[in-house]
Amino acid sequence: MAGTWRAAVLAWFQLILYRLLLQASPSPVTDSSTPTPARSSGSASTPVQSTVPFAYFALVLLTVLNMLNYMDRFVVSAIVEPMSKELHFTDVHIGWLGSAFLLVYIIVAPIFGRLGDRVSRPWPIALAVTLWSVATVLSGLARNFPQMLAGRAAVGVGEGGYVSIAPALLSDCFPAARRGRVISILNMAIPVGSALGIVVGGAVSQAYGWRSVFFVAGIPGLLVALLALFLPDPPRGTQEGFAADRPATAVSPGAAGSLQETFRLYASLLQRAPFMYIVLGYAAYTFALGGLAFWTPTFLMRARHMTQTEATTLFGGIAVVGGFVGTFLGGWLGDLGLRRSPQAYLWVSAWSTLAAVPFVILALTPTPTAVFYPAMIVAMLLLFMSTGPINTALVNCVSPLERASAVGFGTFLMHLFGDVPSPTLIGWLSKLSSLGQAMLIVPVAVALGGVLWLVAVKAHARAPQSSLGVAQPGAAT
Q1: Which CATH number does 51-237+255-466 carry?
Q2: pLDDT digits 0-9 by tens, 292-330
Q3: How does DSSP assign 343-357, residue by residue?
Q4: Which residue in 11, 103, 222, 379 has the fewest CB atoms around it within 10 Å?
């Protein structure tokens, strides 16, 4: 009976999503420039190069969950002033709330990432969503800084688990030639969720108080988490022409052996130049974007004398429009560019990020209003253009059997050197001078990210496929 009920639910969702998405989606194209791993003996098969059953259900559900992920993450940005007033927080306290969340987040991400390469993937995703939603609700009950710090750190446990597994699962659901658009759709939830956290957070705080914001942000995740148990879980490597030699539920015997295996894999990733340049560039980019997302509403209130509602609505609206359009445009350009270069995703990421630098400077300096608004819009659009392509480049530069591990380990590194220190550093610089001057560190980080991704193009072109991790599918097993 349970199996029949589950099949009926999945069929219902598939029918709806087929009408909404599948008929509007272009036919899959096999692109010879997309690197494919060599097939191991005993596991060789013809590349699927088509969507697996219920793939669109997975895409929509994981995108919705990603939106809730970022909504929960950024609600604090909307309530800095009223929360600080009641709980007597300084800018340093506020910076530590962002850094504590990310510190836990990056520690958990590689753990869940390795788990996502070794077990069935739907249940860790459902567990992660439940954890971050409960922690968000509990943050609304905090009465002092240690309690709020603990609540925000706990949110990082759940979100760190989700972000490692979702891109790897989707990479096995859709053809490689359409992967840029798929990952971009997943990441279009970033500006939407971030903006919802800021806009809804500001509106709810004004109407019902800042504590209600955490309840409004956390409860939807609890309602959606159960659907994650119905996600498809295709064999790893399906789209590249081979399936994992062991079933998704198998785990190597012996905890010690498993731990050694994990450390060997991470040590191997550290020695791969394309992976490291992508991640280091992503760290600089994340430093900038994390600082912008966390401090911009407060910056607008102080430097441009906006009210809380004006600041959160303006920044949230610009982030939604610029982020939504930029993310999809970047993914589309990356897929289109594969016809000319296998490094297309890196080219798009690098040049769009470098093009954003002058507009970020204009948006963060005392410019006339007629200059500020266009500069902020263009800056957001160009910054988010790299989101889909760079994540696609990351999953493409490793074997399908180690993608969740690579995303988790990459997440650890990029946040450790990126938006873990940036909120606290900007808060500290603000205390020494002003928030306006402290924010000028952001365009420097943006430029560094673009340069490192240009270096990654060269490293990727020179690296043999074995060093990219795509020619040895058995290496991660």
Answers
A1: 1.20.1250.20
A2: 888 888 888 888 888 877 887 788 788 788 888 888 898
A3: THHHHHHHHHHHHHH
A4: 11
